[in-house]
Amino acid sequence: MSKTVLILPGDGIGPEIVAEAKKVLDAVNHQENLGIEYSHGKLGGASIDEYGVPLSDETLALARESDAILLGAVGGPKWDELDSAIRPEKGLLKIRSELELFANLRPAILYPQLADASTLKPEVVSGLDILIVRELTGGIYFGQPRGIRTLENGERQGYNTYVYAEHEIERIGRNAFEMARKRNKKVCSVDKANVLEATVLWREVMDRLSAEYPDVELSHMYVDNAAMQLVRAPKQFDVLVTGNMFGDILSDAAAMLTGSIGMLPSASLDKNGCGMYEPCHGSAPDIAGQGIANPLATILSVAMMLRYSLDMPAAAEQIETAVSKVLDQGLRTPDIYTDGMKKVSTSEMGDAVVAAL
Ligand code: NAI
Ligand code: MG
């Protein structure tokens, strides 16, 4: 049965890196006869320019019909002055919540070839392979009420609401346990249960779920300690699971352990395994149009797509092996360049991955 992938290049370097990722997906698609078909849509600034909104009903309909979505990144200075309701990022938040993409998987893997790229000592990060599972459609980023109000004394007050219902905690918790089962069988649940009641419930639900996964070891950690432990001894972790805001912050910190944001893929999944795949980085307007962006995070996102949404794990592994091969060959975009290596452009990197397939 054929599968459909919706392509959303987005803004800035988005179209450049998505073009390379699609090149790689095309190559495995033909080579292995996977029967993958494409549809094309717009998101973010590209959509604002054409339709006046960051996510059109047409693109949302295409997203609902597809088995997986490949996204570049959205946003840029061109749209920064717009009212917050129609900014590019709103399109991203809307597609995540409309499709209920509640499980955001962000692996942080240090490639041995890039050991020099990390700012941490080699013994702290060498061999690092951790997975952050971040809840993506709830918590304080979506909680109501929210806003800026004027108090009786005339002073203004900003407020947001941190809420999690049991079912939201349970589904992301299950996802983390299932992921850990296929890895090193450890889940560390991160909360602030000493201060926030919403996360007392989080901890309780995780403990209850744990009984169903006796083969996985569950531990709990407060978020401030987790931030510290991530830079002190990141290899103590296997899977970290946490809410939307804590996950946002911790996953960026974890990303930097590996040296370059240009190497890190992500997946955002719904309960059926349909999902959206994108690099962890943004649209990098500072380097857009120069052909120097690193396409590997997006190419590795395609590998995650083949594994988690399209049920084609062998093809996923082929891509990951090919990426490792081009790094072995010494090919580097400027963001991961070190002395003695061969500097390549965005499209040369994509071509090299295709050749390595
Ligand atoms: P950014 O991730 O776009 O860039 C941060 C730095 O990393 C820049 O110096 C950039 O040149 C570099 N960089 C990023 N990706 C790279 C790649 N593939 N290869 C080489 N270098 C790379 O974050 P920034 O600058 O905070 O945001 C820029 C725009 O992107 C903003 O409009 C922001 O809202 C948007 N953004 C979008 C995201 C998304 O679509 N998921 C996520 C984060 C930011
Ligand atoms: Mg972030």
From TrEMBL:
* GO CC terms of this entry: cytosol
Molecular function as annotated in GO = 3-isopropylmalate dehydrogenase activity; magnesium ion binding; NAD binding
Q: Which cofactor does it need?
A: Mg(2+); Mn(2+)
Provide the Isopropylmalate dehydrogenase-like domain boundaries.
Answer: 4-353
Instruction: Tell me where it resides.
Output: Cytoplasm
List UniProt keywords, sorted A-Z: Amino-acid biosynthesis, Branched-chain amino acid biosynthesis, Cytoplasm, Leucine biosynthesis, Magnesium, Manganese, Metal-binding, NAD, Oxidoreductase
Q: Where does the chain bind Mg(2+)?
A: 224, 248, 252
Q: Which GO terms describe its biological process?
A: L-leucine biosynthetic process
List its EC numbers. Answer: 1.1.1.85
Q: Where does NAD(+) bind?
A: 76-89, 282-294
Entry binding sites for substrate:
96, 106, 134, 224
Q: Which PROSITE patterns match?
A: IDH_IMDH
Pathway per its UniProt entry is: Amino-acid biosynthesis; L-leucine biosynthesis; L-leucine from 3-methyl-2-oxobutanoate: step 3/4
Pfam families, per the entry:
Iso_dh
- Reaction catalysis annotation: (2R,3S)-3-isopropylmalate + NAD(+) = 4-methyl-2-oxopentanoate + CO2 + NADH
Q: Where is this site: Important for catalysis?
A: 141, 192
What is the cofactor note?
Binds 1 Mg(2+) or Mn(2+) ion per subunit.
What's this protein's family per the entry? Belongs to the isocitrate and isopropylmalate dehydrogenases family. LeuB type 1 subfamily.
Q: What does this protein do?
A: Catalyzes the oxidation of 3-carboxy-2-hydroxy-4-methylpentanoate (3-isopropylmalate) to 3-carboxy-4-methyl-2-oxopentanoate. The product decarboxylates to 4-methyl-2 oxopentanoate.
What subunit structure does UniProt give? Homodimer.
**This protein is called what?**
3-isopropylmalate dehydrogenase
| Organism per entry | Pseudoteredinibacter isoporae
